[in-house]
Amino acid sequence: MIQVYTGNGKGKTTAAIGLAVRASGAGLKVYIAQFCKGRLYSEIKALKNIKGIKIEQFGRSCFIKRKPNKEDMILAQRGLARVREAVTGGKYGVIILDEINIAMKFKLVSFNDLVRIIDRVPAETEMVLTGRYAPGQLIKRADLASEMKEIKHYYNNGVSARKGIEL
Fold it and tell me: What span, in angstroms and rounded, lies between the C-alpha atoms of 44 and 25?
């Protein structure tokens, strides 16, 4: 099954990580590839302590406010290669591509390359793709698509990202 978590609201990565923890608790092995992220977020620290969950980052730092460069492209392509290995290796019950939609938006990953990987996902493997700007073609291919919609956000009142909540 293919799941997509998208939209401009908070909670896409959090939902995917919740699913990863649930899957691990059920004895499934989980692989998480974080695209466009390279900082040590609190979820990295926590997930490294959970048996059966492997997480890797393929980004320098959040570059939403700047244009990506060649290094960003190289890291994203490296991430896509690792995801391809995870899909074809057959050892993971859940594979999460965190912020893959952002990577596509910034043209670090092509939709066609992603589809070639999606088409190889074994029937018994769940794949979750997160990030704003999920293309309609991806939503159409998904078995489940959820949109996180911002109704109100404390960022708009000047509240910065907080450790353990956003970081």
Answer: 17
Residue type, 70: K
Question: Rounded to whole angstroms, how far apart are CA atoms 139 and 61?
Answer: 27
The span from the CA of 129 to the CA of 67, in Å, is 22
Burial class of 62 by CB neighbour count within 10 A (0 to 12, 13 to 18, 19+):
middle
Q: 11 pLDDT exceeds 80?
A: yes
> Looking at domain 2-124, which CATH architecture does it have?
3-Layer(aba) Sandwich (3.40)
pTM, to two decimals: 0.92
- Angle at the Cα of 114 from the Cα atoms of 109 and 115, rounded to 5 degrees: 145
Closest by Cα among 27, 104, 25, 92 to 56: 92
Q: Where are the alpha helices (DSSP H) in the chain?
A: 12-25, 42-47, 70-89, 100-105, 111-118, 136-141
Amino acid letter for position 68: P
Q: Over the stretch 118-150, which tens digit does the pLDDT of each residue have?
A: 999 999 999 999 999 999 999 999 999 999 998
Residue ranges covered by each domain of the chain: 2-124
- Say if CB 3 and CB 128 are below 8 A apart: yes
Distance from C-alpha of 98 to C-alpha of 14, rounded to nearest angstrom: 10
